[in-house]
Design brief:
Layout lengths: L1 H20 L1 E10 L2 E10 L5 E7 L7 H12 L3 E5 L11 H12 L2 H16 L4 E11 L1 H11 L7 E5 L18 E7 L7 H13 L4 E6 L11 H8 L7 H19 L12
Parallel strand pairs: 3-4, 3-5, 5-6, 6-7, 7-8
Antiparallel strand pairs: 1-2, 2-4
């Protein structure tokens, strides 16, 4: 029995080592709007090209969680860029600073658009990327951003997935009468930051615009449900944030299926989110 356990542990260690060896990661610096972006790039270790996925951070900024999502996507056979929308790699765990960073860029629509599209162009131009296959996934504030870009009809964006995203979207100018990007929303059913009427308005708008939408709600899940740091941050600052393991694993599977359906991508099977 002991020997069997040793063999099993050794096999697991080899699998983890092999998995890590198959992924290459590096910090990247590029111009984004009027800022200098400090992004994080992750890709399979083998030759490409691969479909590209942008990872857009929550209001905390480009942190370890956003980087971990990029690594996860690289393990599934995508090139991923964790985007730095705040510029200069700014991130914080202070909600007051996070709100200030978020408000500054959210209230400057042209600059937000420029930073997003410049990051998208950087990913498209990478030698390992298939520039004609680009999607974006975002969390919280970042979820709202990627859904807004889909709502704006951003050329070249094939899909947008928002996790615990705020759902109030602005009317683009000029108007967009049909959304061509496919959309996935993974929503916390108990999220106090998203009102039920906002959910209904969002769904109705997507239907009117002919969007291919999959909307999944996880009962009682709160804001930040897929981020393992959410509970700690919520307790520290008295904010209704909470990690939910089952919701994280279910939403991870939804994202994997969404991206595969998007391009019929035959990458490796989805790696499981740890229990």
């Amino acid at each position: 029995m002991v020997e069997s356990m040793r063999v099993l542990c050794f096999a697991v260690a080899l699998a983890v080592t092999a998995s890590a060896a198959e992924i290459e990661t590096r910090e990247v610096i590029h111009e984004a709007g009027t800022a200098t972006a400090n992004g994080f790039f992750a890709a399979p270790g083998r030759a490409g090209p691969f479909p590209g996925v942008m990872v857009v951070h929550d209001w905390w900024g480009l942190d370890d969680y956003a980087r971990s999502r990029a690594r996860l996507l690289a393990g599934l056979g995508y090139v991923a860029l964790a985007v730095d929308l705040y510029g200069d790699g700014k991130s914080t765990e202070d909600p007051r600073k996070a709100f200030a960073h978020m408000s500054e860029i959210r209230n400057n629509t042209p600059e937000l658009h420029a930073r997003f599209t410049d990051a998208m162009r950087f990913l498209q131009n990478h030698p390992k990327s298939d520039r004609d296959k680009i999607a974006a996934v975002g969390y919280g504030f970042g979820g709202n951003v990627v859904l807004q870009m889909a709502r704006n009809g951003l050329p070249g964006l094939d899909g947008a997935a928002g996790f615990y995203a705020t759902l109030e979207l602005r009317e683009p100018n000029p108007p967009v009468h049909k959304i061509t990007a496919r959309i996935l929303v993974c929503h916390g059913g108990g999220d106090p930051f998203v009102k039920p009427e906002s959910v209904e308005t969002f769904k109705r708008t997507m239907q009117e615009l002919g969007a291919d939408l999959r909307f999944v709600s996880y009962k009682d899940a709160l804001h930040g449900f897929s981020n393992p740091s959410a509970t700690r941050l919520g307790k520290s600052y008295g904010i209704p944030l909470k990690y939910d393991g089952p919701a994280e694993r279910a939403s991870h599977d939804e994202l994997d299926k969404f991206l595969r359906r998007l391009w019929d991508h035959a990458g490796p099977a989805a790696s499981k989110v740890p229990d």
